[in-house]
Amino acid sequence: MYIIAIRPLWRGLVEMSKKTSVFLILLLAALLLFWKISSRGLNEWDESRNGVNAFEMLRNHDYINLYYRGALDLWNAKPPLLIWLIGFSYKLFGENPLALRLPSALSTLGFFAVFFFLLYKGKNKELAVLTCGILLGCGAVIGIHVGLTGDFDALLLLLLAASAYFFWIYCYEDNRNAIYLAAVCTGLAWYVKGPAAFLLLPGFFLAGCVRKRGFEWLRDFRLWLSLMIVLLFVISWIVVIHFFGRSGTDQTQSVNSIQSMFAYDIWKRFTTSNFEGAGSRDYFFFFSAIDVRMNIWNYVLYLTLLIGLYQAWKSFPRFVDRFRTSENGMVHFMTCLILFPVLFLTFAASKHDWYLAPVLFAMAYVAAKGVHYLSVRFKALKLLFAALFLFTFARNWLQIDQQATVATFLQPESFAGRDTIITAGNLRQDMYLQLVWSGIPIRCKPVAQILPSRNVLIVIDTNLRNEIPVNSISLNNIVSGYFVSAP
Predict the structure, then answer these.
(1) pTM, whole model, 2 decimals?
(2) Which residues have CB under 8 Å from 83's CB, separation 6+?
(3) What's the sign of the alpha-carbon dihedral 328, 331, 337, 343?
(4) How far is 364 from 352, CA to CA, in rounded Å?
(5) Among candidate residues 401, 418, 445, the one where a domain is terminated
(6) Distance CA 200, CA 358 (A)
(7) Final residue of a domain: which of 355, 381, 401?
(8) Cα separations in angstroms, 116 against 24, 294, 332
(9) Do residues 180 and 209 share a domain?
């Protein structure tokens, strides 16, 4: 009875019109992205750093070099497209969590639209809805360090998905001029996160060889012109830094942001085993990353891969022939996109689960392919998968709802009547961002030189408690590891 009742609902969901599907997907995505967007706790690392970079950019009017606490920022050495967007958002909505996260939230909505239209070009329209449903129910796209925070990865994901969309049109629909738009999107992705923009290029090459059944397609002059366009984006930023970039001191040598980006973000990060405390290399990174990001759907992915391996084992030539048909074009396209980033990150020394963000959408498609395959052959499983979609969406929403709120001492009353903020010791980046948003001048002093005053907000690292003169500053108000003068 329940199975009979679920069938019309399942059919209605997967067979909606394109406009209705996009509207519903974007509506649900917006619900998750904007839920408590202003009250969720700030991410200590990249999000807060980006917020400070944008704040100082607007104050010093240097739109090329990034600064942190008044000094040239060589830790965040990426090109500044995201910082420009955050600064523009600050101008429109003020300096607050909403403005910080708005570029990422809008980029994520754009990603869902672009990715849906990409999947809709495949032979099976139902998979577009199923894949987006999986992504709505996990942290692959709408998660920390991607769509929910003011980080680089949401904007990067949008541009890479757009690049994949145009490459599909070029390679699978034989619209030759589309490759230029794919190149422009890849070039813009360079201005977001530097070399991470090129993660999908090996997948494009492999997909082209599979689709065209060889290397003849590499003779197309448009392909080489598009690569020149990408190269021009890279060279343009190098030229800008050469003429307008500032140099800072990195340990013992003077470096600019280009040198820092290639030395820090590429060479050290992916070759040094103890870089950022990474420890030994994790060759099971793929499994741990998707376990964190895919919210149960990773097990459906495993099952889908096992089914594929079993079919290949039964008849490998027949499996390869079916894999390369136009009906399965989207399957081998997504498979090709996955392979290089997974192998590259598996053998890299330092990595985080969000580094897989550029290909997690492709993994969601593979999982959706398994959902469709099993639900067609076993009708009763439609009820199970429908329940799984609802459960994972609700779980993702609850995880967003339960995220910590901004620290209480940074509420407006804490700054009332203050004309100076004095800090001592190490200050976490999220704490510092919330202080600079107040607009009150910030000074850093040794603990012994700090004198309490009604018009001064004092923030001191608790690790310095032994350096505080007796009876000079109250030690009763401790918030998040800091002594904070009472309002």
Answers:
(1) 0.91
(2) 50, 53, 54, 57, 66
(3) negative
(4) 19
(5) 401
(6) 8
(7) 401
(8) 12, 18, 17
(9) yes
Structure letter (DSSP) for residue 42? P
For residue 127, give the nearest of 371, 378, 333, 380 by alpha carbon. Answer: 371
Alpha carbons 81 and 87: distance in angstroms, whole number: 10
Q: Are residues 450 and 376 in the same domain?
A: no
Nearest to 303 by CA among 207, 236, 370, 223: 370
* Longest CA–CA separation in the chain, Å: 82
First to last CA, the chain: 63
Report d(CA 348, CA 285) in Å as an integer: 10
**142: closest CA among 113, 114, 166, 111?**
111
- Same domain assignment for residues 104 and 252: yes
How do residues 64-98 score in pLDDT, each as one tens digit?
Answer: 999 998 888 888 888 999 999 999 999 999 999 99
Please report the beta strands in 200-277, taking only residues with DSSP state E, as ranges in sequence order.
248-250, 253-255
Which residue range is the domain that position 465 belongs to?
408-484
Q: Are residues 71 and 220 in the same domain?
A: yes
Q: Are 350 and 461 within one domain?
A: no
Q: Are residues 369 and 428 in the same domain?
A: no
Same domain, 307 and 437: no
Judgement on whether residues 445 and 395 belong to the same structural domain of the protein: no
Cα distance between residue 123 and residue 126, in whole Å = 9
Residues 6+ positions from 386 with CB-CB distance below 8 Å: 6, 9, 10
Q: Which helix H or strand E contains 72, and what residues bound it?
A: strand 71-72
Structure tokens at 283: 């060759």
Residue 3: pLDDT band with limits 50, 70, 90: very low
As beta bridge partners, residue 168 has none
Using DSSP bridges, classify how beta strands 456-461 and 420-424 pair: parallel, antiparallel or unpaired. Answer: parallel
Least confident span in 7-11, 38-42, 170-174, 204-208: 7-11
Closest CA to 423 of 404, 443, 409, 437: 443
Contact 366, 302 (CB under 8 A): no
Return d(Cα 222, Cα 228) in angstroms, integer: 10
Closest CA to 451 of 413, 420, 411, 478: 420
Could you tell me which of 455, 411, 413, 453 has the C-alpha nearest to residue 434? Answer: 411
Is residue 3 within 8 A of residue 89, CB to CB? The reply is no
Mean residue pLDDT of the chain comes to 86
Helix, strand, coil percentages, rounded to 5, for the chain: 65, 5, 30
Number of folded domains in the chain?
Answer: 2
Cβ atoms within 10 Å of 60's Cβ, excluding its own: 11
Q: Which two tokens stand for residue 379?
A: 């009708």
Residue scoring higher pLDDT (321 or 169): 169
